[in-house]
Design brief:
Chains A, B: GO terms for molecular function: DNA-binding transcription factor activity; transcription cis-regulatory region binding. Chains A, B: Keywords: DNA-binding, Repressor, Transcription, Transcription regulation. Chains A, B: This is Ribose operon repressor. Chains A, B: Pfam families: LacI, Peripla_BP_1. The structure is a homodimer. The first copy, chain A, has 3 domains: 44 residues, lambda repressor-like DNA-binding domains (434 Repressor (Amino-terminal Domain)), CATH 1.10.260; 128 residues, Response regulator (Rossmann fold, 3-Layer(aba) Sandwich); 128 residues, Response regulator (Rossmann fold). Helix content of chain A is 47%, strand content 16%. Chain A has 13 helices and 12 strands. In chain A, helix 1 crosses helix 3, helix 2 crosses helix 3 and helix 10 packs across helix 11. The longest helix of chain A has 18 residues. Chain A binds a DNA duplex through helix 2 and helix 4.
Amino acid sequence: MAHISDVARLAGVSSATVSRVINGTAKVSEEKARRVRKAIAETGFNPNEIARSLYKKSSRMIGYIVPSILNIFLSEIGRAIEDEAFRNGYKVILCNTDQNPEKEAAYIKMLSSMNADGIIITANNEHLDEELESCRLPIVVLDKSAGARYSASVQSDSYEGGKIATEHLIRCGCRKIVLMRGPQQYSSSQQRFLGYVDACNEHGIQPLFVESGFDYREGRDGARELFRRFPDAEGILAVSDMAALSLYRLLHEQGRSVPDDVMIVGYDGVELSELMTPALTTVAQPIEAIGRRAVGLILEQVEKGKIEQREIIFPVTLKLRETTKQI
Amino acid sequence: MAHISDVARLAGVSSATVSRVINGTAKVSEEKARRVRKAIAETGFNPNEIARSLYKKSSRMIGYIVPSILNIFLSEIGRAIEDEAFRNGYKVILCNTDQNPEKEAAYIKMLSSMNADGIIITANNEHLDEELESCRLPIVVLDKSAGARYSASVQSDSYEGGKIATEHLIRCGCRKIVLMRGPQQYSSSQQRFLGYVDACNEHGIQPLFVESGFDYREGRDGARELFRRFPDAEGILAVSDMAALSLYRLLHEQGRSVPDDVMIVGYDGVELSELMTPALTTVAQPIEAIGRRAVGLILEQVEKGKIEQREIIFPVTLKLRETTKQI
DNA sequence: CTGAAAGCGCTTACAG
DNA sequence: CTGAAAGCGCTTACAG
């Protein structure tokens, strides 16, 4: 690997000058600049990013901390984050935690020791708070409201999501509507629950719910409990699009059909929701926008050099598909 | 942030000594070691990994380069990679390329400029070869055989996969069996195709196939063409589990049922395959093992300091589920 | 506009 | 066993 000094020697200038033409950080005579560019091309010089990071105290890295990348919603968000980061010259470190507090803490520590520029995190972990508090990196949370310890939060309107999904089922003629309620440590889950309850109350319907996690397995457990407790549910609000898959399966086993016997509304609007059979009616979050905005907020903080509290809430939209039928 | 010099001062030793107790790289008197540990605890010292990387020319990072993390198979592999990397103190950089040659090249360049320790890559991109060739990092490919330019390859037995899937359909009574053939730049796709053809020939069956990419959308296109050209297919070998979803959908639209009217065998064995309705019979790759082994090979090369060519092929297994029925 | 020099925060020969 | 010093490869005040 060629070093900056090799380029400098070849171009007959100092390393400082080479650095300046590479970064465009100061005026350099066109004559020398030309020689430098030529020397760079000849040597195939690729600046060592680590050396730069050490001096600048920034490695142009963003950590994406999630319970599991196998959660499709999170992987779609990750996709958007990666894309937005890349186009701004940033890299993303994938941090899968399995909700393991030690792994979460280790990653947070690791990221700060690497001069990362920010953290985007989803983790319903209470223990994490101290760890995050002692971390001076900009932190954007995706699953709860920004607290004293987070610099910013980017979410979609969960209250509205819970509400419109419920109202839609009511419009479809359902009276016995059961919500698969997400973990209540997440303020997003709380809000969705509230939206659901309010919609029920406004229509004189009794709110019913079971607890459930977001992923395949947890969703399956939640779905099982749902059918045990509410075998006569007419409409179901799935905790996630993925969980709806488990609903399909159990309903299929019971020989009940969707939407004729039971209607389902998913949540998230992942790509998969459209490809399921039947295609899933769902509350779509603006996944792309959430990911991009989260990165945008980090970059903003990096530029300003100070951490500002921000709270972004995007609107959600109901995608009408085949698992519900309006009368 | 406390620096190593702060710890040294507090403990009344030199930075060298602090470094030695942290890394256990040389003997230090128990007395001083104790003082150092105490000082570390008091200052909350967290060594700057970037500084270490600069000196060691290793950032303990592995790049995972894939067309798209939205491909569930690749995200499950990524999950395994992340896990194995983490337990060895390595971080993984998520590099999504969308098969964009420029993005791929940029990531490869970025990774070497960051003193990354290796690259694990899936990318059916020819243009990439020069880029990889000029990169001295250990490179493990997942989708083709190791060539002059790759240090190692980790795959599962695609030939066998294509073969056993076909034989299974034959055993199920299918005679008109269509393969959704993956991109032939991948040697894995080629092998699978060969396994299919051989099985057909051995049973006097005419090989039939359409071309298809792996993901949702490409799979849908492939599936459409398949039904256009072979409306009377009895058995279908999906290019991936995800593509099978599109098959379900089209078949559903045609009012044909699985497995009674048509049988389907998926490929990959992602978690999702088990949760689909009907549950998908599929050729499962040892995803966890592949990811772990890929990381293992990188670490091995890092330790040895030299790049050795290796070719790992894991066995595949047929998971019998609901989309096929033996007679 | 340009270069010599210091500095980013560690690690490790080297000498003792 | 231990410390002073050099070095990893850049960037940027500072002086000119």
